[in-house]
UniProtKB/TrEMBL annotation:
It holds the Pfam family HTH_Crp_2. This is HTH crp-type domain-containing protein. Gene3D superfamilies: Winged helix-like DNA-binding domain superfamily/Winged helix DNA-binding domain. GO terms for molecular function: DNA binding. GO terms for biological process: regulation of DNA-templated transcription. InterPro entries: HTH_CRP (IPR012318), WH-like_DNA-bd_sf (IPR036388), WH_DNA-bd_sf (IPR036390). SUPFAM superfamilies: Winged helix' DNA-binding domain (SSF46785). Residues 1-55 form the HTH crp-type domain.
Amino acid sequence: MGLTQGSSCELPITQTKLAEATGLTLVHLNRMLQELRAANLVVLKSKTLTIPNLEALMSAALFNPAYLHLNQAGEVPDTAAAVPLPALDERSDGLQL
């Protein structure tokens, strides 16, 4: 909706509020952000979030774009059940969640 500039967007939220919103402890959220930063998956600077490589972040997060099982019209396609999800032991990036 026009809120991004390339691979960046404003993220005017504190780690405390982000932890509350995600149900994580502040300590755990901070550790996860440190791991994401160390892997160059996210850059947080001056209330701006930058995702240098979206595909790498999606892979690290085990994101499956079919998880909502919706097509362009917002309907459930017949093939949604056939989409394989990666196994948890298939991570190759070394991150631990």
